[in-house]
Amino acid sequence: MTEVLKHSADATTVEEGLAIQEEQARFDSAQATAVAMQNTLLTPRFYTTDFDELDAVDVSNVRKDWDTLIARMKSDPNKGHFKKNEDWDDVDWENMEPDLKKEFIDFLISSCTAEFSGCVLYKEMKRRGKNKDVTQLFQLMARDEARHAGFINDALREAGVAVNLGFLTQKKKYTYFRPKFIYYATYLSEKIGYARYITIFRHLEANPEYRFHPIFKWFQEWCNDEFSHGEAFALLMKTDPRLTSGVNVYWIKFFLTAVYATMFVRDHQRPVFHKALGVDPDWYAYEVFKKTSKLSEQIFPLTLDIDHPRWQSTLEAIYRANVDLADATKKKQILRKLGAQLRAGWGFFSLMLIPSKRNDVPVSTCLEPIY
Amino acid sequence: MGFFSKEVEYHPCEVEVSHCFESLHAHVKFLDGSVVKPGDEVIVQGPEVMAPYGSVVREQREAVIYRASKIEELWTRLTGDFEIMELCEFSFSEEVTL
User: Fold this and answer.
1) Distance between CA A141 and CA A214 in Å, rounded?
2) Which residue from A minimizes the CA distance to B62?
3) pLDDT number for residue A16
4) Residues of A with CB below 8 A from B98's CB?
5) Closest-CA residue in chain B for A49?
6) Across chain A, where does the E strand assignment appear?
7) pLDDT of A74 over the 70 cut
8) Same domain, yes or no, for A127 and A104?
9) Are residues A15 and A46 in the same domain?
10) For A266, which of B36, B83, B92 is closest by C-beta distance?
11) Are residues A74 and A192 in the same domain?
12) In this structure, is residue A266 part of a structural domain?
């Protein structure tokens, strides 16, 4: 039913756009009462951090790069990109293989929630901070995340999934992260996000017959935003050398290992999605790790040895342990569950024991999205 | 704030929910400048704030902050970091099978 409605992005005038949106709003409420759409409540998490520490950030040693990056983000090169145009082909949701549809919708909802949570986190940092450099950056990043979320939401609506934003009236607890952990985790998340999207984008450029949904055509602009956000976190880390030295080197190794291992496990849990794209998850993981490692040389004093003989086999062991863990949990087999947890934990520890490669961080931090 | 006891506070707030193509977001702003600390819980009073597709809803509401006791705040500060991986985006949910 959705396809008979014209999209606001197709409107030529403001009036037309508003009229279409109004029409869609009516359509949405009618749908919601008919419970025809699958209703998905977005459940973002809420965070606090040490705002005094954030206010104390001094970007003067990276001022030139910082100002260039902020100016570019302010000029908003991707404004208008996240609109559907003639490249947005019709999607045959009705005839999509059910397993693929399930995995693809999981992809859309998870991505939408992640963008949404990013938006909430960045907005909170913007609102609570007093340091103008920092608040300006977080405001710009919140804008991008909200835009991405809106774009994915649109694709979800086409698939008959309505996103419910009613979570504000539910009780939610604020947890706490130290600023440095936010830097490591979000820096890596943004850069690995770039590597993930661009790898799929290039693969589909060469093999367009595997592009089963038009959203993949927008991956390039999308991941360029992720790239810029990563640049900003790299510069933030550059402002304080202590963030990338001493005991923090071990934290960085921990985060790299955790992010790579989690990605490997989650991707292997979605075989139908990857098969439909014509992507071998092992090849994909290796490509993404390679790119992310290369990019992270801009700021991290080490890279993981992804060519080590134990690397791939240990990741596979963690994946198998995770499958067993879920099965044992479902069947309430306590001992088997404990065994699986130990195997997964041991696997992770074993990855951490693989010697990492030292990296001499370059003087100039900034990079361009060249992949 | 007590060491073990929780306190309940009521504060005016503004809720903004945008359900648009250009931006999908939802924020709460306390109008009296109150701030939330680790371990606090917040709930916006009243019915669900629903924005139909294509609209931005801005409403003034009352929010309840359940202040964490000092011990809970400390605990959240100490242990919150364990959940940090939530900030990373992996495209898929953690469910092994769907």
Assistant:
1) 25
2) A169
3) 54
4) 102-103, 106
5) B38
6) 38-41, 46-48, 161-164, 172-176, 302-303, 357-358
7) yes
8) yes
9) no
10) B92
11) yes
12) yes
